[in-house]
Amino acid sequence: MIVKKEPEIIRSYLEDSSNIFGGKAGILYIPENEQEIIAVMKEALGKKMPLTISGGGTGTSGGRVPFGGAVMSMERLNRVIGIFNEDGIAPVISAEAGVTIKDMKIRLAEKALFYTYDPTEQTAFIGGTVGTNASGARSFKYGSTRRSVFGLKAILTDGSYIDVKRGDVIEKDGFLRVTSSNRKTFHIPVPTYKMPMTKTSAGYFASKGMDLIDLFVGSEGTLGCIVEVALKVNKEPDDIISCFAFFKNRDEAYKFAIRARDISNTNKSINKDLLNALSIEYFDKNTVSLIRQVYSKIPEDADACVFFEQDIYGNNDDSVLEKWVGLLKDHNVSLDETLVAMNEKDRQGLLDMRHLLGERMNELTKRNNMPKVTTDLAVPDSKMDDMMDYYMRILHETDMENYLFGHIGNSHLHMNLFPKTNEQYKKAKAISMDFVRKSVSLGGTVSAEHGIGKMRKDYLKELYGTKGIEEMIQVKRALDPDMILCRGNIFDYVEVNRSV
């Protein structure tokens, strides 16, 4: 195991894509196997030392950033264990938590397999994507990471571990009861709050009859150190159609996206030559302009654009494409200005254009020398019109640089504000909270895919209130009574003290 105390080495583990400030740690552990992780957990427990688990650094909520104590990186647990069939559920890939999405996809491609639960950041660690219930564009058709998790192994703070498959531990009488490797049985109370009826990664999952695995998915490292996961994967499609369509009118782009969403939802379970999107993404005028700075092919008069994909199984490319062309024509799209990819090279070019946004926005943040302020909200489909109107009205009234884009197929958009002064930053925070409250009032979530981390805890209070936060604290106390792991994620440690 590598152990480092030099500040200049630890420094790179004190940041992630959130650009949160103030991270600090006195010691860095880089274990290479489970036994070394167990040793670190026991040492942290013995010293009552906070221990933050560090993934790939791609998170946007500050979850991996320590604010004291020690940090433990999972980077060397990067082995793909195997690809196999499990109890008739085929196929499943088993991998250690430090394997990147990119490396996992390479291994799957060798077997003509496809990881559908595909977050944008390809350098993200698998353990981190499970810990935040990450998703991405293709969650429109296949859902978030939660749906893929078939099994997991997690080491607890006392050095014991649990190794479970879906269905092994189910809620009964308000509790999840699990026995770890040292034969200790944990009684975990299931929170009683009502979760939003949307994709969500806001706090602990809770429902009647729930699976223990679903508690760990989205727990952001606060309950145990996930060291190994088993993920269900799909057969690789025969082809994928990818397309950027540009609209001269924002309202027309929105109507196209919603119509494509509704048609696809109707066709999801039908294996025919029908329009059935894999992903549907919306980009407002400001976002299109940002992309145009690098990709000159984007029409100058584009007021918005929609990116969509459809996976193809069989030889029905032409039939499917014809239906998309018809829908584009219905919404006054110039086919000559539409970018279509039907091979891997061209498709990667379009994906690169889509993924450019994160890089460009990090540049804007550094330019302003101020944190960006973002939201990660999703609402029920029936409420998306209301949410979109609210976005448009509020953003139109601000003079701050802003961008609105994201997974409109899931009624899930990202709002980004870029303040340049402290006064603007305060205003941006107020605007973001206004959007959060609107989402909650519509039955939506306060974090659809990025987790709560250390930056969105106030948002979570809006969703579940003080009682909901207290119920989460009791869940954590059941598995981590000394509050060692990932302190400050999801809820504040001060709140923990008040609840003791």
Q: Which tags fit this structure?
A:
500 residues; alpha+beta; Alpha-Beta Plaits; seven-stranded antiparallel beta sheet; 20 strands
Could you explain how this protein is built, in words?
With 500 residues, this protein is an alpha+beta fold. The chain folds into three domains: 80-235, Uridine Diphospho-n-acetylenolpyruvylglucosamine Reductase, domain 3, CATH 3.30.465; 237-369, Alpha-Beta Plaits; 371-451, Alpha-Beta Plaits, CATH 3.30.70.2740. Helix content is 34%, strand content 22%. It contains 14 helices and 20 strands. The strands form five sheets. Strands 17-14-16-15-19-20-18 form a seven-stranded antiparallel β-sheet, with helices on both faces. A hairpin with a 2-residue loop joins strand 5 (80-86) and strand 6 (89-96). The chain is globular, with a radius of gyration of 22 Å.
